[in-house]
Amino acid sequence: MKTLKIGENTFELADSIINDLKASENLGLLKCIQCGMCTSVCPAASHTDYDPRVIVKRVLDEDDSLISDDIIWNCFYCYSCHSVCPVNNSVCEINQILRQKSIEKVDGIRKIASFLAYGDSFLELGIGSIPNDFFNELIKDIGEEYFELKIHLDDIREELGLGTIILPENDLNDIKKILKKTGFTDRLTKIRRVKKDEEDTR
Amino acid sequence: MNNNHFSRYAPKSSIDIGVFLCRCGGNISDTVDIERLKSSIDAKVVKDFENLCSLKCQKNIRDIILEEDLDRAVIAACSPITHEKTFRNHVAPLNPYLLEMANLREQCSWVHSDSDKATDKAISLTNAAVERVKYARPLDTIVRKTKKSAAVIGGGISGITAALSLAKQGVKVDLIEKKPSVGGNMIKIGKVFSPEKLAEECALCLFNPLINEAVQHDNINIITNAEVKSSERKAGNFNLLVEKKPRQVWVDRCTACGNCAEVCPIDVPNEWNENLMMRKAIYKPFPQSVPDTYTIDEEHCIKCGNCEKVCNMNAINFSMKTEVIPLNVGSVVIATGHKGFDLKKRPEYGYTRYDDVISQMELARIMGVNGPTNGKLQRPSNGEIPRRLVMIQCAGSRDEKPEGKRYCSKVCCMVALKHANFIKHYYPETEIIICYTDMRTPGMYENYFRYGQSNKIKLIRGRPGDVTRKNGNLIVRVEDTLRGEQLEIETDMIILSEAMEASDGTLEVAKLLNVGLTEDLFVKEKHSKIKPVNTDIEGIFVCGTAQGPKDITDSVSQANAAASKVSELMNGGLEIEPLIAEIDHSECKLCGACIDSCKYKAVYMYDERISVDPIACNGCGICVAKCKNNAIEIMGQTDSQIYAMISGMLKDKKDGERRILVFLDYIGYVAADNIGVNRIPYPESVRIIRITSINRLMPKHIIHAFENGADGIFLGEYPDNVVYSNIQEKVHEFKTQLIKNGIDPDRLMYYKVYAPYFRGLAKKFYEFDKQVSKSLDKLEAVLYKASSKDI
Fold first, then answer.
1. How wide is the angle at C-alpha B584 spanned by C-alphas B581 and B589, nearest 5°?
2. Which domains does chain B have, with CATH numbers?
3. Could you tell me if A136 lies within 8 Å of chain B, comparing CB atoms?
4. pLDDT score of B675
5. For residue B542, what are the β-bridge partners?
6. Is residue A7 assigned to a domain?
7. Which residues pair with B395 in a beta bridge?
8. Using one digit for the tens of pLDDT, what is the confidence trace for B321-338?
9. In this complex, is the C-beta atom of B462 within 8 Å of any C-beta atom belonging to chain A?
10. Residue B11 pLDDT class (50, 70, 90 cuts)
11. Residue A5 forms part of a structural domain
12. Which residues, numbered 82 to 111 in chain A, qualify as contacts with chain B under a Cβ-Cβ cut-off of 8 Å?
């Protein structure tokens, strides 16, 4: 049996989420009545042990172990919970904030290592694009149209009166400066190191 | 009330004032030097007594007033809150409002121990009363007689109950109902729950006798098919115009035989049966309709004349016109009720998409023996008895999403249990599952909840996310939150427990009568605790679900309460203290600024004249400051009286003495008295002036006080919701004016006063005294520097 000791009943974790830059204004976290409406429509919940209602319960119970719990990585941001919640809470947003905590405090960084290529695309091209690593997967998912699109992208753009997708050198340099200043580049370096370590140990 | 213009009440050159000092058996005289006090007062008669409130003294005071032919009286004794009423009687034959009191006990001798300083203060308190009483004018108590008649709007259980209660108390009632029949929602629901008998009782059997009683009562005039179209207030009464739509059927000829409906070729959805079946364009809403007569639905009738041909009574007349009925009544009761939440606004639950998803009210009609299935439980899609039925609670309630209702609709848990128990009784084979967030069955209703459990109603704690269809079954997706398990419930039928929301009629009537609404669009009561059936307009009351979600029990209680409040106004008339706003019609330019500014909706325009409802007005004075033409005065708190009080309090101020004027509202004054009763000391600089509200004060009063030697001004008032924002504005305005006049704004402060926290007020007096002293030191330093520069 757990004893709830005097002074233990705090809302520090909840407060840190509410005050996070990523949280919507008036996030209804404290108003959760555990009705379970979020879980009832959650696709992740129907395939895994993930339960958005329980995530909120654990946040309100000041359960810090949540940050290192693999369960928070099961949400895939479909926002169903967000759209049905009767008190305007959003487990989806809460998860994003919890993951950031995990990245900062524990080994959450390993969880995002596989997305490294997305970040690299910003560094190299100055735009977000789907990494080449996923090319074959996407053709499998979407079909030959994807292949056609990729091959003839320049022609299609020209036909639509759009310029080349490659940014001018000056613009690209500006973007690189911004990414450097905002810490994006450093973060990618860190992720790259973690990814390399993992591959090495493997 | 005296109609003379108030400016004529300037003091005449010689007013003979008598000052009566009370020693209060030592309570005052032990601290205050009565002899010095007596010699410092400038009045025709100054006399001291041991116990002024005694009956013996009553005679003494009266004798002196008569012998010396006094015009005014000042009583320097205890707090006016304790004994003002007593002394008003003592000064007869003087008009009771020609008396002024100085509070020498609670606000002087009981809070100060230094006899010299206390005596100084007693002198200024008494002087202030003497100055003020010179400007007093005789006033008469206002006796308001209200016309002994009322309009009740809405003919549901609340309206009928209120009308009957009023009628039995001798009040003439016009009951106005929008629909062709009275009965409202209660007559539709079929059954009501009885937590005592653990059974469902027949709603119609309970309600019908009341309706018949109302129909037969000489004091009640029921006007159906009618709506209020306009309303005007006049001298505490209301002029309403009611528009009665033509029935095209003579009520006194129609025998309700129904031949007409049989030949009518037009089918119209039957709204009384929640559109689950059809009716004709000539129809009687339901078999027990009151009045028991057919009505032609003008919107759908094609005037083919078939009905006219078969009517043996010649009751049909297509040339009937809309009738406008003027009503003049003393009071209005709003009993316009609620409607069910539009479930299409919760599309995820499949309402209208699936035939077998229905509302609780639709289920009530299906279960009603006078309903579309004659009381048989059937699936709307195929007429079969459902094997399983799932109820989804909070459909539209406790929902902050757009279109949802934030509040709990209060009755749905009991409604769901009622239907579940009732169905279990007649269809034991049908499974019933209620998906709930919280079961709310307060008080004795818990018995009925347990009764439902024993009837094997299954409860799942979770709020369903959506409803779909799979393999011919409806599927409710929900998390069983007690098990932490996602669940898909197969079912034949789904009942959504729809939220209650204000009816269209409620919104229309509120707008017409200028009655305030809550954020959730119900009629707002004046105070949820102590004035639950008053609206923000004096003389208009509210009951039933027009005021908020509630069940029949509460609606009936509230209807009776509203009736008794109406009756209070009408039986015998109300005596009101005349300390209210008075309009000087010769100065008034009818700009209407006072009407807009009044938080109590006491001011209104009638017949090109501004009027003040004496019951609604509390003399707060917001309007006085808003009136550009100086055409409003608050009786008993005229400008001259306020100036006189301020000057009197500051008279004979000694060098180096500090005087702080403290303006307190009633609550503040009571708190200050309590400081005295508990003998908690505070600085002698404090001089308390009672006002109805800080809102009565204007910058000119504040500046006048500083110019006449006030060192600081302390404003204390209970932060009442209604006028608090005005207080904040006022304080800001005062501070701005002080800065403009080169006065340190720190020398004025506002403090929120609460009656039980008098210690806090005493503490604030100390703090403010220090704050003022500091500000004055600073000022002195600046002046000293300036003067030394001059040298």
1. 110
2. 1-139 (3.40.50), 146-245+322-337+503-572 (3.50.50.60), 247-321 (3.30.70.20), 340-499 (3.50.50.60), 578-629 (3.30.70.20), 653-791 (3.40.50)
3. no
4. 96
5. B334
6. no
7. B498
8. 999 999 999 999 999 999
9. yes
10. low
11. no
12. 84-88
